[in-house]
Every structure is written in structure tokens, then in C-alpha cells.
Design a protein that fits this description.
Blueprint: E1 4-10, H1 14-25, E2 30-33, E3 51-53, H2 54-59, E4 67-77, E5 82-92, H3 94-108, E6 111-113, E7 118-124, E8 127-133, E9 137-146, H4 153-157, E10 168-177, E11 192-196, E12 205-211, E13 217-224, H5 239-249, E14 257-258, E15 264-269, E16 277-278, E17 281-283, H6 298-319, H7 325-339, H8 343-355, H9 358-370, H10 373-380, H11 384-389, H12 396-408
Parallel strand pairs: 1-2, 1-9, 2-6, 4-11, 9-17
Antiparallel strand pairs: 3-5, 4-5, 7-8, 8-9, 10-13, 10-14, 10-15, 11-12, 12-13, 16-17
The structure holds flavin-adenine dinucleotide.
Flavin-adenine dinucleotide (FAD) binds near residues 149 and 151.
Length: about 425
């Protein structure tokens, strides 16, 4: 087995595995190091609801057989209102999706090493030349890519990722059967992906029901964990406690039974990305935080960042033959232009959304019902003009709260 590659990728999540597909497809020697054992893969990393849209499926050639259920609409719920947008989507079997990406990458020539927990970068004479994994195993390469999600061991070591605990969002989800998807008190969730803004069930975040066929659905919640976002939270109630509370009090779950044994758990960071590359190094996927305010499309973003990294590696290894920080910086440019344009505004929308009280969510749904489909898509893309249309003078208090949040963090002023 060779121990020298063009590109070393840490992590076989959607980002790492997609990047390997792209690079191997272009003829590069690429190795992916994944901490989980192959016979269990994906175990703990099987952490996503897998809701996505046609653009992701077609852009990355994802086959229908990893789709658990095709949906026809997205529903947004607040405590007393809802908004329905017709939009074809797909709830992926996340395990099958991850396995497909690995197999397809292998087919194209990528090498995978499972049971390989990446520890730190190997730096010689100031140059990054490889990666150390497990106890003392080493692998060498021209370019190293961290795609380990929030773990980010390489990016952290190289001072690239500055993932802040204050911006940490956690999530939990179960698969249920016996869910009443067309309850008279709520919107019809048959063939829908539903996101609910309601601090009773997800203080400082949102909860969801994604239909997965018949009377089954993925049901989960996620929220930002810091004090400011937890103003509406009940002391000592854990994320599991909130999900239980939702299940106990929402009539749609009266006859619901959990199907899968263990819950899906995961986390992400809601914060600006900062720098994403340095000499012969790039950070991709959830190692770099990026959030969509309305739909939360993590998968599409991380696949696009994988493609941007593959394009950059191709350019640096073949065209410019230069892997300096300046050349690798092309990746940062592509990320800001193509992966998550106008990230600052999208981030602001996301944070404002989670800070607003329940009554404001009801009004938001009423307003969304009056807007055109294009307007909503523009809002999700961070259009200032369209965002302003949704704001009221009374929102000044949340804007103020948001400003203080971004200036001072949450714990320093918990009055
Ligand atoms: C509960 C939940 C629900 C979600 N639902 C949706 C959704 O419906 N739609 C959507 O688009 N997005 C969703 N997301 C977000 C989406 O899942 C992520 O954005 C996406 O999985 C990120 O992919 P990634 O490859 O960057 O990282 P990850 O998926 O985190 O993959 C990282 C990989 O690296 C491996 N790894 C970690 N540490 C090491 C190490 N030291 N060495 C080697 N390997 C390592 C892990 O085992 C894993 O395989 C959800 C996230 C959560 C937590």
C-alpha cells in the first residue's frame, strides 16, 4: 500500500466522500481516513435527517435508491400558524447515501482507510506534509483536507477552525411509525418536510417532522445551546427532555411508536466561517460553519464545498503547481461566491429567527403566506431588500439583542 498521495482527506462524511469522488474522477491519488469501522459505517456519524432538494441530487448524481421518501412540499409551523410551499424534495436514507458516496468514490479510484482516527497534522520544516492517525500511523500527501465535521482536529491544530462553544447547536432525532400526518388541528404533512419554530419544543432553535412514507416520519429538534438563546428554556430540561415533551403534548404523536433503536444525534456551529485554508490545506463541510436560515440545507452546502475544494486542488496540483496559502485561497473565494454567498446576512437571519418570541413566529407565518415564492427564496439567499420586507418597528428589540449577542457573546451580559 502506497503511503504518499496527492490528496489526503480526513472524514468520510458527505463532504469528504464527495471530494474524494471528484478528485479520484480527475485521476488524482486520494486517500480518505475515516474513524469508524467499515462494518458499522456509518454508526455515530449516521446523524442527519437527510432532507434535500432536486438541485443537490442532480448536481452530484445521487441515485434514487438512496431516497427514503420523495416529498412535494415544505411546511413552516409556528405555535398557531403555518405556511406551505410547494417544492419537490427528498428525504434521504442517510446511511445508504453515505455508503453510496464511498462506493462510488472507490469505483473511481479513491482509497479508503476505515478505523483510522485522525489525530494531528505532520509538519516538517514549517510545511504541512501529512497526517498522523490512530496511535502512530502516518500518511503523506501534497494537499490535506479536513472533512471531519465539527471535530476538526486538523483545522483546529492549524489555527483555521475557530468553532466557538457559544455557537454550538445540538440536535436529536428518532424515526417513528403511527404518526398522524394529517391531524385536523395542523397542516397536512403527508409528503412534506415540516420545520416548526416554537420555543416550547425547541427554545432557540426549531423542531421538525419529515414524512418518510405511510405513517412513518423522522421527528427531531435542534437548538443553539448558549444562555441567550436559552432564555425561553426550562432549567435542566435536556435536548432529550424537549423531544419527550413534544412527543407527550402534540396530538400527532398520540399513537406514535419509535422504530429505530438509537436516536440520531449531531451538532453544528452557527457562526461566521472565518478563514478556510492555508498552505496545502483546506477545511470543508461542517468543519466550516454555514447555515441556511430557512431550510437549513447542510448537505448541499457541504457537497458544494467539497466540489470547490476539489477544483482548487486540481488547479494547484496541475495548473499552477503551487500549494501556497495564496493559491489555496482560491477555495475561500469559491466558498464565498458559490457555496454560501452572503453568509453574513443569512447568519443574521438565522440568529434573529431563533431569538424572536413565539408571537413573532405566528406573525412571520402570516406574512410568508402573503409573499411570493420568489421572495421567500430571495430571503433565504440573504437579499437585504426582501429581508427588510419582513421586519417591523417592534423588531428593533431583537435586532438590539442580536447586536449585543454578536458584539459581546451571550454569557457576558446575562442580565
Ligand atoms: C440531527 C441533524 C439533522 C440534520 N438534518 C439535515 C437535513 O435534513 N438536511 C440537510 O441538508 N442537512 C441536515 N443536517 C446537516 C448535515 O447532516 C451536515 O451538514 C452534513 O452531515 C455535514 O457533512 P460533513 O461531511 O461536513 O460532516 P459529517 O457528516 O459530520 O461527517 C464527518 C465524518 O468524519 C468522521 N470523523 C470525525 N472525526 C474524525 C477523525 N478524527 N478522524 C477521521 N474521521 C473522523 C465522522 O465519523 C464522519 O464520517 C442535519 C444535522 C444534524 C446533526
Amino acid at each position: 500500500m502506497s503511503n504518499r498521495y496527492d490528496v489526503i482527506i480526513a472524514g468520510a462524511g458527505p463532504a469528504g466522500a464527495q471530494c474524494a469522488r471528484d478528485l479520484a474522477g480527475r485521476g488524482y491519488d486520494v486517500v480518505v481516513l475515516e474513524t469508524e469501522a467499515e462494518d458499522e459505517f456509518p454508526a455515530q456519524s449516521n446523524k442527519s435527517t437527510g432532507g434535500t432538494f432536486a438541485s443537490m441530487m442532480t448536481s452530484f448524481g445521487i441515485p434514487d435508491d438512496v431516497v427514503m421518501h420523495a416529498t412535494g412540499s415544505v411546511v413552516l409551523e409556528s405555535p398557531n400558524e403555518h405556511f406551505i410551499q410547494d417544492q419537490p424534495g427528498f428525504v434521504l436514507d442517510f446511511e445508504a447515501f453515505k455508503k453510496f458516496l464511498v462506493e462510488d468514490g472507490r469505483h473511481k479510484g479513491a482509497e479508503y482507510r476505515f478505523d483510522a482516527r485522525v489525530r494531528d497534522p505532520i509538519v516538517e520544516d514549517g510545511d504541512l506534509v501529512g497526517v498522523r492517525y490512530n496511535r502512530d500511523q502516518e500518511v503523506f500527501g501534497e494537499i490535506v483536507i479536513d472533512a471531519t465535521g465539527p471535530a476538526a482536529p486538523l483545522a483546529k491544530d492549524l489555527g483555521i477552525a475557530n468553532l466557538d462553544r457559544e455557537n454550538h447547536a445540538i440536535g436529536i432525532e428518532y424515526l417513528f411509525e403511527g404518526v398522524d400526518l394529517n391531524h385536523p388541528e395542523f397542516a397536512d404533512l403527508t409528503d412534506a418536510m415540516m420545520l416548526r419554530l416554537d420555543h416550547e419544543y425547541a427554545p432557540g432553535g426549531y423542531s421538525w417532522i419529515f414524512h418518510t412514507g405511510d405513517d412513518t416520519a423522522k421527528v427531531g429538534i435542534c437548538y443553539i445551546q448558549n444562555e441567550r438563546y436559552q432564555e425561553n428554556a426550562i432549567h435542566d430540561r435536556t435536548v432529550d427532555g424537549y423531544l419527550e415533551h413534544w412527543l407527550d403534548t402534540d396530538p400527532r404523536f398520540e399513537n406514535a411508536r419509535q422504530i429505530a433503536e438509537s436516536p440520531v444525534r449531531g451538532s453544528a456551529h452557527v457562526q461566521p466561517p472565518g478563514s478556510m485554508s492555508t498552505d496545502s490545506f483546506m477545511a470543508i463541510g461542517d468543519t466550516v460553519p454555514s447555515v441556511d436560515p430557512v431550510w437549513g440545507e447542510g448537505i448541499y452546502k457541504c457537497m458544494k464545498s467539497a466540489r470547490a475544494a476539489a477544483m482548487t486542488a486540481d488547479r494547484c496540483l496541475t495548473r499552477t503547481k503551487n500549494i501556497s496559502a495564496e493559491e489555496m485561497g482560491v477555495y475561500d473565494d469559491l466558498w464565498n461566491e458559490q457555496v454560501a454567498p452572503r453568509q453574513d446576512r443569512r447568519l443574521m437571519m438565522t440568529r434573529l429567527l431563533y431569538l424572536a418570541p413565539n408571537e413573532r413566529y405566528d406573525r412571520l407565518m402570516q406574512d410568508l403566506n402573503k409573499l411570493s415564492r420568489d421572495t421567500l427564496s430571495d430571503i433565504n439567499d440573504g437579499s437585504k431588500r426582501e429581508i427588510v420586507k419582513l421586519l417591523y418597528p417592534s423588531d428593533i428589540s431583537y435586532l438590539w439583542k442580536y447586536w449585543r449577542e454578536t458584539q459581546f457573546g451571550s454569557v457576558s451580559y446575562s442580565s
